[in-house]
Amino acid sequence: MAAPIVQLKNLSHKYSSSWAIRDINMEVNQAGIVGLLGSNGAGKSTTMNILCGALNQTEGDVFINGISMRESPEEAKRDIGFLPQNPPLYMDLTVDEYLDYCATLRWIPSFNMKAFIKEAKERCGIDHYSKRLIRNLSGGYRQRVGIAQAIVHKPKVVVLDEPTNGLDPNQIIEVRSLIKEIARERVVIFSSHILSEVQILCRDIVMIESGKIVFADTMDAFNNYVEPHSMLVKMENPPAEADLLQVQGVTRVEYLTDRQLRIYFSGDQEIAERMITAGVEKGWRMREITLDKSSLDEIFKQLSS
Ligand SMILES: Nc1ncnc2c1ncn2[C@@H]1O[C@H](COP(=O)(O)OP(=O)(O)OP(=O)(O)O)[C@@H](O)[C@H]1O
């Protein structure tokens, strides 16, 4: 059987006296986007820096296509492209000069260099800015140059540390669609502290909190897991709890005010429809139903407990 494209094995890291990450295990076996989700200080950058060989772990190892980062760092790094949280851009170079320099660092043979750089620029939509100084580009275009340097050597794995941080809404949309595009034929591991961003982009999600993985599965499994199990209902003529428990799926009722209730349910999400039908039939005079959504904080609390 082929080795996983990316494998993190019992990865732990200690900065001076305290552990930043502890016993991280993860495997990626196919192209697509894996989202590393965690709040500030959760350990995302530490994990990514180690994964890319930019930081030496205290314990454990990283394998890229079965090659150990600890034993053969140069070989393992050949198939990785990395955009760190602070993109390593040289403001006084033009886009072409900068990408030439990056391509040289990435051991691209000189006869391929021009073609590889051209392809990276085209994919990132920066070809028309080839001669422009990086300092004169907008934040969104600088980030594109950062992504171009991460894919210039055509690596199988691209790691992007919070690539949409600090961008305006339009730039965020553009960078997200670029990430989708480059993930078509390779693994992209990207980090974010925004749940909705990971939900939009990723096939798989790895949630990290206080240096530990608290959830790792497909995005579909995650969405099922966090589906709401309660709703806020406003009605003019609320019935007794016994009547509400007759509606299929309702498990518990909390009376918040004389016209506002929180209704807990299990099972499918069609409960709102059944509630409306029952309300109309029985004259409860419903005014509003809102399914409660879990916030990221609540989900982390739930998963970490
Ligand atoms: N160079 C360092 N020296 C000491 N502690 C560090 C260092 N870098 C990170 N840490 C600590 O390690 C923990 C994990 O930090 P890390 O930067 O990996 O988290 P993160 O999830 O990427 O957060 P952010 O989104 O804020 O960058 C935090 O408690 C942080 O304070």
Describe this structure in words.
The protein contains eleven helices and 14 strands. Helix 4 packs antiparallel against helix 5 and helix 5 runs parallel beside helix 6. With 305 residues, it is an alpha/beta fold. The relative contact order is 0.14. Strand 9 and strand 10 form a beta hairpin. The protein has two domains: 220 residues, Rossmann fold (3-Layer(aba) Sandwich); 75 residues, Alpha-Beta Plaits, CATH 3.30.70. It is elongated and about 80 Å long. Adenosine-5'-triphosphate (ATP) binds next to helix 1. The site of adenosine-5'-triphosphate has 12 residues, from helix 1. GO terms for molecular function: ATP binding; ATP hydrolysis activity. This is ABC transporter ATP-binding protein.
Indicate the topology.
Elements: E1 6-15, E2 18-28, E3 32-37, H1 44-51, E4 59-64, E5 67-68, H2 73-77, E6 80-83, H3 95-105, H4 110-124, H5 139-151, E7 157-160, H6 169-182, E8 187-192, H7 195-201, E9 204-209, E10 212-218, H8 219-225, E11 230-235, H9 241-244, E12 250-255, E13 260-265, H10 271-282, E14 286-291, H11 296-304
Parallel strand pairs: 3-8, 3-9, 6-7, 7-8
Antiparallel strand pairs: 1-2, 1-4, 4-5, 9-10, 11-13, 11-14, 12-13
List keywords for this structure.
305 residues; alpha/beta; Rossmann fold; Alpha-Beta Plaits; 2 domains; six-stranded mixed sheet; four-stranded antiparallel sheet; 14 strands; binds adenosine-5'-triphosphate
CATH topology descriptor of the largest domain: Rossmann fold
Bound molecules: adenosine-5'-triphosphate
- CATH homologous superfamily placement of the largest domain: P-loop containing nucleotide triphosphate hydrolases
Q: What is the CATH class of the largest domain?
A: Alpha Beta
- Summing up helix and strand content along with how strands pair, one would put the structural category as alpha/beta
Helix content: 25-40%
Total number of domains: 2
How many strand elements? 14
Measured between the Cα atoms of the first and last residue, the distance is 36 Å
Overall 3D form? elongated
Secondary-structure element series: EEEHEEHEHHHEHEHEEHEHEEHEH
Protein name: ABC transporter ATP-binding protein
Family: Belongs to the ABC transporter superfamily.
GO molecular function: ATP binding; ATP hydrolysis activity
Pfam families: ABC_tran
